[in-house]
Amino acid sequence: MSTDENGRIRSWTLTPSTPRYSPPAGAVDAHCHVFGPMARFPFSPKAKYLPQDAGPDALFALREKLGFARSVIVQASCHGTDNAATLNGIAVSGGTCRGVAVVDPAISDADLDMLHAGGIRGVRFNFLKRLVDDAPMDKFLDIAKRIERLGWHVVVYFEADSLDEMRPFLAAIPVPIVIDHMGRPDVTQGREGADMSAFRTLLDGRTDIWTKVTCPDRLDPAGAPYADFVKAVRPLVADYQDRVLWGTDWPHPNMETRIPDDGGLVEVIPQIAPTAALQHKLLVANPMRLYWPEED
Ligand SMILES: O=C(O)c1cc(C(=O)O)oc(=O)c1
């Protein structure tokens, strides 16, 4: 745990290892965040955690070290619905970042257009009670309908025990859906455990539901080298290879007691995607289709 004199938490390591595995050219980290810097981009008064600054410079330095070319910055809950920090990260990236926003349901069409011009390509709906005060499904559905004209998708974050109540909501969404961290299955149940099976049923119901095969550090209680995560997730990558994404999740919000080594997270990639063809889909072809479709 690393908390500074102002009570601000650091949830990422300052000394990540250099991974032995080298991602393919053009690899995309499709799930990471920026925090602040707070002096320019204050956190939301409703934030459930107060992190130290983790701005674009630190993100780009890590990306370089890990061998990634592009990033998708996902608006972190600590910034609420003010996407300025995310837009700043995209703006200073020279075209190498795109983003996913969190929006107030009352947002105007003009403001959605402004987000698009700033590199946003999706909206995130967060259902974790420890992260947000409310998650109004009817209003989220309205947003999902309004972003269709922009060619965006929605990113949904929920936990495995709420999957059943999510099903009708997800079924009503008219745009592609990306599920954060596979809806947090209990990976110790194994590849055919109840959580993974329920999640596969969801993926089987629609061909435009994608998922991020991310966060072994959050999902595998045994920690590195994340053997249970690998066992449960490798078959998922093989079976849904055209709709899986990978990301570091840096700066790992809330992971202050189990800070992962980012290099160690990259080492997991060739274990869940064991061939060059799978790695290319996971790290290049799939995220490019979703976030840089004009280059596809
Ligand atoms: O599980 C988490 O604590 C978490 C939090 C956030 C966020 O605060 O936005 O994002 C994530 O992807 C994961």
Automatic annotation (TrEMBL):
Source domain of life: Bacteria
One of the record's GO molecular function terms: 2-pyrone-4,6-dicarboxylate lactonase activity
Keyword field: Aromatic hydrocarbons catabolism, Hydrolase
Catalytic activity: 2-oxo-2H-pyran-4,6-dicarboxylate + H2O = (1E)-4-oxobut-1-ene-1,2,4-tricarboxylate + H(+)
InterPro entries associated with the record: Amidohydro-rel (IPR006680), Aro_Compnd_Degr_Hydrolases (IPR052358), Metal_Hydrolase (IPR032466)
Gene3D superfamilies to which the protein is assigned, alphabetical: Metal-dependent hydrolases (3.20.20.140)
GO BP terms, alphabetized: 3,4-dihydroxybenzoate catabolic process
Amidohydrolase-related domain boundaries: 28-291
Pfam families: Amidohydro_2
Annotated EC: 3.1.1.57
Similarity field: Belongs to the metallo-dependent hydrolases superfamily. PDC hydrolase family.
The name this protein goes by in its record: 2-pyrone-4,6-dicarboxylate lactonase
